[in-house]
Structure to design on (370 residues):
């Protein structure tokens, strides 16, 4: 009911024609009293709907009103309200920490990049290995020097949907008081084409020390994510890592607008993610991490090139990210390109950002990773 009532009207004048949203909703049960399980289920649904609505609000916000710094400020405010620890790495801190790929993505913009680090560690769980969630937070993606076509470029305000899902899930977890340590990283930048922008052919140094040859500046999301993935593994020993991103048009071509791509070389984690998504009505199709395709990422001038050909583009993008995950770590990549934006209204979502991924991450964290 809450998702069906959702509207993004923060930037509109109030209208007398719009009926007011209900202040409360009654659920009927067959009995004299509502069982405890009924109350708990209602609260869980309410929390999940709140998380999705927050993710939609963030992704629907225009790029001029939600820069990397403003997204970081919003995350810090939500963290303070919900009891999350929050750390924000600005451009100087990113340079000190060696996140040069994320910095490069944002260097063509007048609005510099940020890495937002959120941690939820409830009492008694402070020392356990965290579940780490990493979200792509490109607040607007022009394509950079490899400029996108004008058609539908306005939807690129939604290229931070992965970060929005991570932020919404972490905040909801803290509000619920879930018994699980979770860390969230938002890799935020604006990809613009000014005279300082990074170029095809540039060679960057990632946070793990590997050199990366840039092929196409419109494949910026994987550069932001690879630094966040590598940096996270320096700082924590994770129980599992899940990254989520509007990463490739190839995934949308392969799966359409009803399914997201799931890449994972651990059957147990893949099954838990698929089940978590299905619980919230978010559906994934597992695609192969076909290792022979990694040869397409070999570079003559660097340790790795960041894109390959068009064929199998979602797979080679996932393999690029896999390069920055230590062998033996539990890791999954969720490619939500194609499902992050509703071109037509549905019963549970108006036209615009869908908030896809927030429910999956929330449910995954509720169930934990063993």
């Amino acid at each position: 009911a809450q998702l069906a009532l959702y509207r993004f009207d923060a930037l509109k004048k109030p209208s007398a024609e719009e009926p007011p949203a209900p202040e409360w909703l009654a659920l009927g049960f067959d009995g004299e009293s509502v069982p405890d399980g009924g109350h708990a289920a209602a609260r869980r649904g309410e929390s999940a709907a709140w998380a999705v609505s927050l993710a939609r609000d963030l992704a629907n916000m225009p790029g001029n009103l939600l820069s990397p710094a403003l997204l970081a400020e919003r995350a810090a405010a939500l963290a303070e309200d919900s009891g999350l620890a929050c750390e924000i790495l600005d451009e100087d801190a990113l340079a000190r920490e060696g996140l040069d790929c994320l910095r490069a993505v944002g260097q063509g913009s007048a609005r510099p990049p940020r890495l937002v680090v959120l941690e939820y560690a409830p009492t008694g769980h402070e020392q356990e290995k965290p579940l780490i969630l990493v979200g792509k937070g490109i607040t607007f993606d022009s394509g950079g020097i490899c400029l996108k076509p004008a058609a539908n470029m306005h939807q690129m305000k939604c290229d931070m949907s992965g970060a929005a899902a991570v932020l919404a899930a972490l905040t909801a977890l803290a509000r619920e008081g879930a018994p699980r340590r979770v860390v969230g990283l938002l890799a935020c930048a604006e990809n613009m084409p000014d005279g300082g922008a990074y170029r095809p052919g540039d060679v960057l140094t990632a946070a793990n020390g590997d050199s990366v040859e840039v092929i196409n500046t419109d494949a910026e999301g994987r550069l932001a994510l690879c630094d966040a993935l590598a940096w996270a593994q320096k700082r924590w020993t994770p129980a599992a890592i899940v990254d989520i991103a509007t990463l490739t048009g190839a995934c949308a071509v392969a799966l359409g607008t009803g399914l997201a791509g799931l890449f994972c070389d651990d059957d147990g984690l893949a099954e838990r993610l698929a089940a978590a998504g299905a619980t919230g009505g978010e559906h994934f199709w597992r695609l192969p991490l076909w290792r022979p395709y990694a040869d397409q990422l070999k570079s003559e001038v660097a340790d790795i090139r960041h894109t390959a050909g068009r064929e199998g583009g979602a797979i080679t993008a996932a393999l690029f990210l896999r390069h920055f995950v230590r062998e033996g770590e539990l890791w999954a990549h969720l490619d939500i390109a194609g499902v992050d934006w509703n071109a037509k209204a549905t019963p549970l979502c108006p036209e615009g950002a869908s908030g896809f991924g927030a429910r999956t991450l929330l449910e995954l964290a509720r169930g934990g990773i063993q």
User: Anything to note?
Assistant: The first helix runs from residue 2 to 5. The longest strand covers residues 131-141. The chain has one domain: 2-367. The chain is about 35% helix and 15% strand.
